[in-house]
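Regression test case RT-17, inverse folding.

Input:
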């Protein structure tokens, strides 16, 4: 059975207020939030953008979404998780500061901003999956405890997954740092000896003593490493990182299984919006103003994240006149995440596009 995907066209010439009006029209016509009940706690999962990035979904649009949720007498909050890499979103304090800097304040969006702090172990939940690649998913409990979930994603390219949309926003975006590391590589980080200055900061923070100094360089014992990625966060010299080249398709399949860990708890209580506005080659973690790779297309909405991402992919490729993400990231086939998600029952590859 085909899933319904609602679409409204947006162009670069549209003002922010014009896009807000179109978004409201899309939400009204689709009745996307019909499942939300009074007093539901609603996690609005998004990406606040890295320092210097401008591609993220604007706070003015989140204001419209939150207002629509509150019409249901529900309680929305905006949320994202801390990053695996070193940057402005590595810890909750700096991440929240950056979110506010980018305009995502309670006064601007009409909702609180919640960024879980993994130092509080009560914020972490292990979900038993027993899937092909992920047996136990490490996720942030805030997304499981909320009564409803609204995924808001900027649809764009990605160096590891070909493209990123609704599935990536939930799968990668709801995982703990350990969960992100599990998806990105074979658990243990690697040391780039040329960058290591021998400060031993990583040795001091490793909770399982998996790191030692050899010849004044950090050395990670893979057998002891638990994949918490604390060493990555503490290193100021980019000497420890994920093995980004590990498993071109594997990362997509792990990511989708992580999405299942969250979405299984939100059956008939989740909805998704993809903004195909300023579609860029790389994700919003890129700390710069990445240019468009196609003209602005519009906003898509659905209860099915698989159909939603598939519709966006099809429309972007149609606008480009080719498989643009495959051209930009030739070693990545983004279709793998869609196929695996469909096989796990997260949605359908077939959809009906309803133009608003």
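Golden output:
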């Amino acid at each position: 059975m085909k899933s319904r995907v609602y679409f409204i066209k947006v162009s670069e010439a549209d003002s922010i207020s014009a896009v807000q009006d179109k978004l409201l029209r899309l939400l009204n016509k689709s009745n996307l939030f019909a499942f939300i009940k009074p007093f539901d706690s609603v996690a609005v999962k998004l990406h606040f953008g890295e320092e210097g990035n401008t591609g993220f979904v604007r706070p003015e649009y989140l204001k419209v979404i939150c207002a629509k949720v509150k019409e249901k007498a529900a309680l929305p909050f905006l949320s994202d998780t801390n990053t695996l890499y070193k940057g402005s979103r590595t810890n909750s304090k700096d991440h929240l500061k950056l979110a506010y800097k980018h305009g995502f304040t309670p006064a601007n969006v009409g909702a609180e901003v919640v960024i879980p702090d993994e130092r509080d172990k009560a914020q972490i939940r292990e979900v038993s999956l027993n899937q092909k690649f992920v047996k136990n998913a490490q996720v942030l409990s805030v997304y499981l405890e909320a009564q409803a979930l609204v995924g808001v994603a900027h649809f764009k390219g990605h160096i590891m997954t070909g493209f990123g949309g609704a599935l990536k926003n939930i799968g990668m975006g709801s995982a703990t740092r350990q969960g992100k590391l599990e998806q990105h590589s074979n658990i243990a980080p690697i040391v780039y000896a040329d960058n290591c200055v021998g400060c031993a900061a990583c040795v001091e923070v490793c909770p399982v003593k998996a790191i030692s100094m050899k010849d004044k360089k950090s050395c990670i014992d893979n057998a002891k490493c638990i994949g918490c990625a604390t060493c990555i966060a503490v290193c100021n010299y980019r000497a420890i990182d994920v093995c980004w080249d590990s498993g071109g398709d594997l990362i997509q399949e792990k990511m989708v299984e992580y999405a299942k860990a969250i979405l299984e708890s939100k059956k008939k209580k989740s909805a998704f919006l993809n903004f195909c506005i300023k579609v860029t080659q790389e994700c919003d973690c890129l700390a710069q103003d990445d240019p468009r790779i196609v003209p602005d297309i519009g906003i898509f909405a659905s209860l099915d994240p698989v159909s939603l991402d598939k519709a966006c992919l099809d429309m972007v490729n149609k606008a480009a006149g080719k498989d643009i993400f495959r051209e930009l990231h030739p070693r990545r086939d983004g279709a793998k995440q869609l196929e695996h998600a469909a096989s796990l029952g997260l949605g359908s590859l077939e959809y009906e596009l309803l133009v608003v």
